[in-house]
Design a protein that fits this description.
This protein is an all-alpha fold. Helix content is about 60%, strand content about 0%.
């Protein structure tokens, strides 16, 4: 099945795989979850195992988010 894959198809498959691996990080960023670094770390580990990708997706969808009215993330510097 994969014996007749050309370089273009391989490149497209690699790009799609990388985009799929980034989905939990994109969701966590969009939701503005607290401790987003944990989601990114689990997603990076998911590259090697595959299992942690589902853990990262679960974390991105279930972790608590920042307050929408606060206007600032913890660790942000105040505007001058």
């Amino acid at each position: 099945m994969f014996s007749r894959i050309g370089p273009l198809e391989l490149l497209i498959m690699a790009i799609l795989a990388l985009l799929l691996l980034c989905v939990p990080s994109f969701i966590a960023h969009r939701r503005r979850v607290r401790r987003m670094g944990w989601v990114v770390a689990a997603s990076v580990l998911g590259v090697f195992t595959g299992v942690f990708w589902f853990v990262a997706l679960f974390m991105a969808l279930s972790m608590t988010t920042h307050e929408p009215g606060s206007g600032q993330l913890p660790g942000d510097r105040p505007a001058d």
